[in-house]
Design goal:
single chain, about 60 residues, alpha+beta, three-stranded antiparallel sheet, 1 helix, about 60% strand
C-alpha cells in the first residue's frame, strides 16, 4: 500500500474545527481514500481586537490505488 500526503491551508470564520472540516471537504472533491488529517499549524487573524478568522495547515493522507 502507498500513502501520499497533501499539505493544504484551510480557513474558517467560525472555528479551528470548521477550518479542518473545510480542508477535508475541499480535498475530498478531487482525492479519494482519505485516511487521516494531521494539523501541522494553527493561527488566527485578528481585526479590531476580535478574532476574524481561523486558519490551519493540514497534512491530508490518502491511499493510492
Amino acid at each position: 500500500m502507498i500513502v501520499k500526503v497533501l499539505e493544504v491551508i484551510a480557513t474558517s470564520e467560525i472555528s479551528f474545527d470548521d477550518a479542518i472540516k473545510n480542508a477535508v471537504k475541499e480535498v475530498s472533491k478531487t482525492v479519494k481514500n482519505i485516511d487521516s488529517v494531521y494539523v501541522k499549524d494553527m493561527k488566527c487573524h485578528v481585526k479590531d481586537g476580535e478574532i476574524s478568522s481561523y486558519g490551519c495547515v493540514c497534512k491530508v493522507s490518502f491511499r493510492v490505488e
